[in-house]
Amino acid sequence: MPNDRIVALERQIGELMAELHALQKENPTTPVPNYTFDTTSGRTTLLDLFGDRDQLLAIHNMGQGCRYCTLWADGFNGLLPHLESALAVALLSKDPPETQRHFANARGWRFQLASHGGGDYIREQSVMEGDDNFPGAVVYLRDGDTILRKNSCVFGPGDIYCSMWTLLGLAGLGEGDWTPQFSYWRRPDHLDDGGRNVLD
To answer: How is the beta sheet containing 30-32 ordered, strand by strand?
Structure first.
């Protein structure tokens, strides 16, 4: 039998999410510069990342050294075809383009990638004021050659942007009970192939 208090809270959260989305829709925009980035194909700009779209979701990823950012990106990667049916998507980090590509390939990520290298873009467009490498996302709009910042959000354990926390919550687990890893493979006690040159 469902717990009435849980059902009531779920309904309340749904109503609050609807209110949040209404506020985000009406949030005013702010013009921003056409920043430049590095990619494995050379230099690109913020306008270029829009492609033929008028909206861009820029995912701020801390880079390959962050297990939490990797968890968020793994989840968004599964949604990518759905997201790209509505807007352009780019994953931005400080890592050099070659590092980004190597890590993305290892994880099966299909994102458009660009490196800000810790430069002006992330200092001026951070999702957390005063922190130039904080995870989150920014939505930009394009009006001709003008770029407008519309909304932003911060990523962190327990947030509304990673379904892992909600699903763990169903099991009574929270951010203090679980930490994401890059890999969950465990070496068996015995390897039938002899076990030589295994990387743990």
So the answer is: 30-32, 146-154, 136-143, 55-60, 88-93, 112-115, 36-39, 42-45
